[in-house]
Amino acid sequence: MFFYLPEKHVSTPTFLPDEARRHAVALRINGSDIHIQVSPWVTLLDLLREQLHLTGSKKGCDQGQCGACTVLIDGKRINACLTLAVMQNGRQITTVEGLAQGGALHPLQQAFIEHDAFQCGYCTPGQLCSAVGLILEGEAKTVSQVRELMSGNICRCGAYPQITQAVSEVLGLVPNAGDTDSSVLVGTVPS
Amino acid sequence: MNPFSYVSPASAEDVFAVLGDSAASGTTKLIAGGTNLLDLMKENVMRPQRLIDINGLPYGDIEETAAGGLMLGALARNADTAYHPLIRSNYPLLTAAILAGASPQLRNMATNGGNLLQRTRCYYFYDSAVPCNKREPGTGCSAIGGLNRQHAILGASAQCIATHPSDMCVALAALGATVHVRSSSGSRVIPFADFHRLPANRPEVDTHLSPDELITHVELPDARSLASHSVYLKIRERASYAFALVSVAAALELAPNGSIRQARLALGGVAHKPWRDIAVERRLVGAMPGDRVFDEVAEALLRESHGQGANDFKIPLARRAIVRALGLAVKGTWANTGEVSADEEFV
């Protein structure tokens, strides 16, 4: 984790260690049991996207800085890019694909739509999973705490005011109460 | 990432058996939360051939000690530690420091032992295309004479000016924690001040932990007398989720007449390790709190500070942050949980 993004380097595998082998991994992903073989160096994010084709979780920075890959492991939000799939054997994983239940959107998904809490949408799956984790943690009691506890998710379109409003509404917080930030109401243009 | 093999033993004995002779060569690494190691592996900065996943070891608990302190399991997560009821009530400085660091997602993954063992680093360390004595000993330091806004003002060497980025460790230094470690040949306890090292002429070595040793616990001594006056003040480039330019862990115990009975003061973001000077700290004991004595202590703590050009501003910034943190600590305790308070603007 570092705030500075260095250049990417392509590494070409030149050898396979003696014990390098695929590992059997059992995961419960969005309520379905998955049994799969993975190489040790496959991150949970790459397993989800490349092998299981659950492409809702996004690879933004691949370094734990942007939060676009946020998923829930046993109810806790984590960066799927910074853990190995093989390390999560036996865990329950929830991705953005698992939030809606029986065709009904998760209340956070509905709130994001109503508050127009995204523009390009790339960060949205991570924002949603992070907000689910935030609600389960139960530490956000004010809007300013919501803002602080969502800071692991970057939105380059700058939809932060609307994201904060959507999450706060689902938490039942009074919008902008005790808030020193100048509020931006959807549908208005601040001076 | 380069290919590597993976094992996940269930006991420390099994870890040591797997480590065997490969510990010293650095080709085998232990992995817990993985938030720093995997990042470095993706950047080709660290290239282990084998990972030992230690998450199956029984070091995940937080327990009270007979001495009135707490034993933090090395595998307890940073978030679980920060929000633990006994940490919140007895060590608000630690809660404040942990919550000032990283993001909620990273705090859910990162372990206490891993927080201590995250690499002291800078952006040149991450860029394998440029010289770095920490990454490739003997190649030179690109930060000296380069972009060094983030770098050390204390304890640096001609070999390395990187800073240790942990917030948690600054609080642990101030609280006088000890680090419990074990290896196949026994166990030992390392005072926190002796755990991390300054770069000197071996910047590739961040700590005094031997390659064949494993952190099992971090012990906190009883510090309840400091719980009512503690502050972790973090100055950074944005309001959340950034490394400290300068951070200050300050904790005081005040006597009934208002004088300082006990003081703790440590700095982050300024050196290769958390910076604490007990001799300087003692100057506060017995004094009536006030800007004059705080200024004096700040000057003394920074007397050997040295800027690199782009980070010269850190010296006056650190001086003011020390004075401000001590002043805030006199008023009470801030937990950095985002609670709205009259002094909210400082977090």
CATH-derived topology of the largest domain in chain A: Ubiquitin-like (UB roll)
Strand content of chain A: 5-15%
Rg of chain B (CA only): 20 Å
Mean pLDDT of chain B: 95
> Number of folding domains of chain A?
2
- Helix count of chain A equals 5
- The succession of helices and strands of chain A, N to C, reads EEHEEEHHHH
N/C terminus separation of chain B: 37 Å
CATH class of the largest domain in chain A: Alpha Beta
The chain pair forming the largest interface, with residue counts per chain, is: A-B, 53 and 49 residues
Strand content of chain B: 15-25%
Can you put this structure into words, describing what you see?
The complex is a heterodimer of chains A (191) and B (347). Chain A has 191 residues and is of the alpha+beta class. Helix content of chain A is 26%, strand content 13%. Chain A has 5 helices and 5 strands, in the order E-E-H-E-E-E-H-H-H-H. A 5-stranded mixed β-sheet of chain A has the order 2-1-5-3-4, with helices on one face. In chain A, helix 2 packs across helix 5. Chain B has 347 residues and is an alpha+beta fold. Among the domains of chain B are: 5-55, Uridine Diphospho-n-acetylenolpyruvylglucosamine Reductase, domain 2 (2-Layer Sandwich); 229-332, Enolase-like, domain 1 (2-Layer Sandwich), CATH 3.30.390. Chain B is built from 12 helices and 11 strands. Chain B has helices spanning 12-19, 37-42, 78-82, 85-90, 92-100, 104-109, 112-117, 123-126, 168-175, 278-282, 291-301, 314-331, and strands spanning 5-7, 28-31, 50-53, 62-64, 70-73, 178-183, 186-191, 214-220, 230-236, 244-254, 260-268. Chain B has a 5-stranded antiparallel β-sheet, with no helix packed on it. In chain B, a hairpin with a 5-residue loop joins strand 4 (62-64) and strand 5 (70-73). In chain B, helix 11 packs across helix 12. The two termini of chain B are 37 Å apart. Chains A and B meet through strand 4, helix 3 and helix 4 of A and strand 1, helix 2, strand 3 and helix 6 of B.
